[in-house]
Amino acid sequence: MVQSAERLARWAAEFTPSSEDLLRAERALRDTVAVALAARAHPMAALAAPLPDAARWAAMAHVLDFDDLHLPSTTHISTVCVPAVLAAGGDARAYLAGAGVMARLGTALGWAHYTSGWHATCTAGAPAAAVAAGLSLGLDADGLARAIALALPAAGGVQRAFGTDAKALQVGFAAEAGVRAARLAAAGAGADAAALDEWLPLVGGAADRLDLTGPAVPDGLATKLFPCCYAMQRPIGAARALAAALDLQQVERIAVHTPRAAVHPLIHREPATGLQAKFSLEYAVVTALLDGFPGFDAFTDDAVRRPAVRRLLERVAVFAADSGGNDLLTGATEVEVTLAGGRTVSRRLALPPGAPGLPATDEEFAAKVAGCGPDVPALLEDLTWASAATLLADAFPAR
């Protein structure tokens, strides 16, 4: 019987990208490098400095939570696969094959895997990074299957890390695990491809959910326009639509009606730090009302401690209901604000800007890149996979 690792490896080895695939890879490269560069002054740069290239670059690309997301698998594909490819000297095809494996493996792990507390970016990411790095190193299908199996012992990460340094670091560990596995496979290390089929049910996945049809990344990638968890993008969008028409001093109550699945990662009711604020539904709504367009400055410790924030957080009530859906964009989110005197205003939103069904425009994406630093647009001019590795190595030197 053909093992799942062998099926994925053969698909990756034989994969030929379409022109649409290559455009997606180009945007993923630019997005990932831009959000990493935006974190140059972040304390994570010092923490990650001793780590190998793939781990260091992945942690820096993820620490601001501004990187892209594949919704069906609930994985941050590019923050793992781009650094793995760059560290191994690869190109767009290697990225797309790794991204395709990550999307499919994450989907096979399923929503139950995610809601049980696993960080799917890490669990699906380590084997996917092995494929991305393995193709970059010239591995054939047999070598890729061995690399997948060699990456599995390090395929772990937990959601309890959300809101702490550990979240970005464990994503870095996943990227590095894949590169390490690929290099070991290239050196001739043996492994049993059946390990993937035995591992999947251990973590709640199922091999029969692996679907190798469709484009490189089925259902596309979501682009974040706000630097925080993707589950906050829609509540922010709904609240922003109300902000301009409100006198915030008159706000008495803020009711958020949401599908329960859509806010599963938002574990911090009253955030005390900027990192925790990136995983707070209540803060998502409050910062959108206060700041209009929440950017990096909205997710600092000082921003979270603002008296106006604390006052409005006390007025937020969340009503989460089961909707039958099982992803971060199931159903719709409604924000209803009650003002002094009893008047209410509300906004209901199904898709945030940047979702695959409402893709970021070229102008929105350019604004995101520009917001990552005044020098970033120029640094990304004529960016290639080879120059991206040099750029990240200069921005985040190893120590």
Helix and strand arrangement:
Elements: H1 4-14, H2 19-37, H3 44-48, H4 53-62, H5 77-87, H6 92-115, H7 120-123, H8 125-136, H9 141-151, H10 165-186, H11 195-202, H12 233-243, E1 251-259, H13 274-277, H14 281-291, H15 301-304, H16 307-313, E2 316-321, E3 333-339, E4 344-349, H17 362-371, H18 376-379, H19 385-395
Parallel strand pairs: 1-2
Antiparallel strand pairs: 1-3, 3-4
Protein architecture, described:
- The model has no long low-confidence stretch (mean pLDDT 96).
- The chain has 19 helices and 4 strands.
- The longest helix has 24 residues, at 92-115.
- It has 2 domains: 4-225 and 357-395, Orthogonal Bundle (2-methylcitrate dehydratase PrpD); 230-349, 2-methylcitrate dehydratase PrpD (60s Ribosomal Protein L30, Chain: A, 2-Layer Sandwich), CATH 3.30.1330.120.
- The termini are far apart.
- It has helices at 4-14, 19-37, 44-48, 53-62, 77-87, 92-115, 120-123, 125-136, 141-151, 165-186, 195-202, 233-243, 274-277, 281-291, 301-304, 307-313, 362-371, 376-379, 385-395; strands at 251-259, 316-321, 333-339, 344-349.
- Pfam families: MmgE_PrpD_C, MmgE_PrpD_N.
